[in-house]
Amino acid sequence: FLGSGMAFGVIMGLPWLDVLLGGFFGLTAYGSEVLARRIPGTGYALEFLVAAASAFLAAIAAFLSPGIHAIALTICAIIIYVPGFGLTIAPREIVLGDTLSGIIYFTNAFFVSIKLLFGAFAGFGIASTLFVLPAVEKAAGVPHLFTWIFAPILPLCIAIQFGVSPRRLWLVGLGALLVWAGVQLGGLLGSWQGAFLGAVILAVFSKLAALRFKTTSLTVILPVVMILVPGFAFVSFLYPLQTQGIIVGIEMGLQVFATIAAIIGGFFLGEFIVSAVTPQKN
Fold it and tell me: Distances from the Cα of 196 to the Cαs of 1, 193, 212, 237, 243, in angstroms?
């Protein structure tokens, strides 16, 4: 939780202070989860409660120390809960004919995301009734070079949470670096090209790693896919919504659908490439 919060703060381009606080609020999100699980009947509302508590605490921090980005800290705290696999792979499952599993994946991911969003709004709403949140201007973030260090940390932390074998963590780290390179290279051409190229690389690398090291491709796909859609579109549009205005926030939110389509297309192309260069296996 600490690592994922700090890593996503660097990816979003936050200042170092907010990066450190993002890791701290990742720990508070874990503490909120532990407390929520002790309350009977809160299982279905877990993500809502965690997001609400994180947003409320981040708002208090922003009130006490003007200049802190409360929404950015909230995103850092809850990023590990974002269902990246369901948001990106479920449509592909439906297209391939696995309609039932795809619908289940996407429905679960959709409702978890809605609970996170409404929880964050509820936390900020409660805080705004108690005190006035100061206006925030976007500050200069950490140098972009550091993203190459922190980008693999987010998938590694998620892989640890998923229980990936320590012997396979290096595959997750290498896959994350390759996908991040594809995202950066494709991003030079446009908003969705980075996600498309990253998805192609992820599909090819995960399949080849599964064949070479006799593991499942989901070992790499599940954590590394977080670098794609959830990182830059579905959740992080809340940050420009506060710092750059509602128009920019809505435009970034609408890019989610184009990015998801690009990821699906990238996975199809990657799997086609692998099937063309590797022998068929039962």
Answer: 28, 5, 24, 19, 27
Q: Which residue has the tokens 């590394």?
A: 224
pTM across the whole model? 0.79
**Amino acid letter, 156:** L
DSSP state of 132: P
DSSP string, 238-268: HHHHHHT-HHHHHHHHHHHHHHHHHHHHHHH
Q: What is the reported pLDDT for 169?
A: 94
The C-alpha torsion from 164 through 169 and 175 to 181, rounded to 10°, is 120
Are 95 and 264 in contact by the 8 Å Cβ rule? The answer is yes
Name the token pair of 32. Answer: 């909120």
Cα dist from 136 to 64, 69, 158, 239, 245, whole Å: 13, 7, 30, 10, 11
Do residues 90 and 106 lie in contact, with contact meaning Cβ atoms separated by under 8 Å? yes
Label residue 66 exposed, middle or buried (CB < 10 Å: 0-12, 13-18, 19+). Answer: exposed
Question: CA-to-CA distance for 169 and 146, rounded, in angstroms?
Answer: 21
Span 243-257, pLDDT tens digits: 555 555 556 556 667
Give the Cβ contact number of residue 248 at 10 Å. 14
Q: Determine contact, residues 88/234, Cβ cutoff 8 Å.
A: no
pLDDT in tens, 4-17: 999 988 988 888 98
